[in-house]
Design a protein that fits this description.
Radius of gyration: 23 Å
Distance between the termini: 16 Å
Number of strands: 33
Largest sheet: 5 strands, antiparallel
Oligomer: single chain
Strand content: over 45%
Structural class: mainly beta
């Protein structure tokens, strides 16, 4: 376990001359530190220039400039959730109750895009893909508000869980079929934006008296767009709550290449840009038990490695681009507790950790906050993460990859938890339904920070 150095001298006072001498030396060292190093140590606003965060508060949608430390209420209203930035960062799309809206930062205009939306995801620049009850799947340009039909409308189908590959070529989606008074999965599909062809890659099955059906759902694409990670969710909700099948579909081999399991939460899977993939494996709907940090090597037939996290129950991993550092949050083990309330209380002690070269280093600590959902920025030197105070106040923070220069960027509290769908009885908050980051930082070599 990585730990900082502590003073073991019992706090004895030092001679004043020594204090003066040491202070002088420190000042000289700081003065001669090269600017590129001192900028990495101090939180330099230039690093975050053009980067921002949007979060859903109780009274509306807030925008925060990370370089100017400025917060603005951009959309007034309640029941707002699931904000998503356009790739350009010029537009934010969000749900208000069941309808889809867009806010244009250039014009400050709010536009209702679609009633009763079922799914949406960002495309290139200012484009989005969307599906709903009144359309099939469409691509919309949010500057011109022109739409292109991708799949035609079918009253007996809905399209869900749209996920676009990083190269913008493949759109994954799930189909739900309706028949009289019942509905069932129509499987997992891929639409090729170049060839304009769609095909089913995983079949969906309905429940019968003899067997439980399945509902495959896309989770995340690999950075090279060659593999799609998806959840194979059983047709029985009680079974799905305690763990589902975790699979990879290989686009080149056109076959499923992984059989594992975990809870179907997309924030519990993360790719590096090298050849590794991390996920939280294990079962149980309760977030305080039976969770493991597992890594798969994509270049070696998905060789599985279960990382040791003694005394910790991990969640929400985020890989560095080179696969050398894994940031995650974790609560303490509950093996010593028999009481359910004590086990649930362990989640309030969740903190952020860094796994590097077999060592686990705590990045946050203390009992004032529950810290979780770390999101590494592109510069690989900073991260945004979420916190919950003992009083239930939500907040967003930023710090560097070594846990230094921690700064709060927003805080808010909900009087009604139902304001967003982010609060979960089992000890999970769906932070992706609450906030999103437009990351304009520049990529740097992460080895400089190790």
């Amino acid at each position: 376990m990585c730990k900082g150095n502590r003073d073991k001298n019992g706090g004895k006072l030092m001679n004043r001359k020594w204090i003066w001498a040491i202070t002088t030396v420190i000042m000289v060292i700081i003065a001669i530190i090269p600017s590129h190093i001192s900028g990495a140590i101090a939180q330099n606003e230039e690093v975050f220039q053009g980067s921002s965060v949007v979060y859903a508060g109780e009274d509306g949608l807030y925008w925060i400039s990370l370089d100017e430390n400025k917060e603005v209420l951009i959309v007034k209203g309640s029941y707002i959730s699931e904000p998503v930035f356009s790739k350009s960062g010029k537009i934010i799309v969000f749900k208000q109750e069941r309808d889809l809206f867009a806010y244009d930062f250039t014009t400050s205009k709010i536009t209702k895009i679609l009633a009763e939306v079922s799914s949406y995801c960002a495309g290139a620049e200012n484009e989005f893909y969307m599906a709903g009850k009144s359309i099939g799947i469409q691509r919309i340009n949010l500057q011109t508000l022109t739409t292109i039909d991708i799949l035609p409308y079918d009253a007996m189908k809905t399209y869900n869980n749209l996920k676009l590959s990083p190269d913008h070529r493949y759109l994954a989606f799930s189909v739900e079929n309706y028949e009289e008074n019942t509905h069932y999965s129509g499987g997992l599909w891929i639409y090729d934006t170049q060839t304009k062809i769609w095909k089913q890659i995983v079949e969906g099955t309905r429940n019968t008296d003899d067997s439980i059906g399945n509902n495959p759902r896309a989770a995340k694409w690999s950075p090279d767009s060659k593999k799609l990670f998806f959840w194979d969710i059983p047709g029985a909700a009680s079974l799905a709550a305690d763990g589902v099948g975790a699979r990879f579909y290989d686009m080149e081999r056109e076959e499923i290449i992984l059989e594992s399991s975990g809870l179907a939460y997309d924030e519990n899977v993360s790719f590096s840009e090298s050849h590794t993939f991390a996920m939280i494996t294990g079962g149980s709907r309760m977030m305080f038990e039976n969770k493991y940090l597992t890594v798969f090597d994509l270049n070696r037939e998905l060789t599985r490695i279960d990382l040791e996290t003694p005394g910790l129950i991990p969640t929400t991993p985020d890989y560095s681009k080179d696969g050398k550092i894994l940031i995650f949050s974790a609560s303490p083990s509950v093996e010593k507790y028999d009481d359910f309330a004590e086990k649930m209380a362990s989640i309030s002690k969740r903190q952020i950790y860094k796994y590097v070269e077999g060592k686990i280093c705590p990045l946050t600590q203390g009992e004032e906050y529950r810290s979780e959902y770390p999101t590494l920025l592109r510069d690989q030197q900073h991260m945004v993460f979420a916190r919950v105070s003992r009083a239930g106040e939500k907040s967003l923070w930023i710090m560097d990859i070594n846990g230094k220069n921690m700064k709060q960027v927003a805080r808010w509290q909900y009087s009604e938890p139902v304001n967003v769908r982010g609060l979960d009885f089992y000890g999970r908050i769906d932070w992706s339904s609450i906030f999103t980051v437009h990351d304009n930082t520049k990529s740097t070599d992460i080895s400089q920070m190790q």
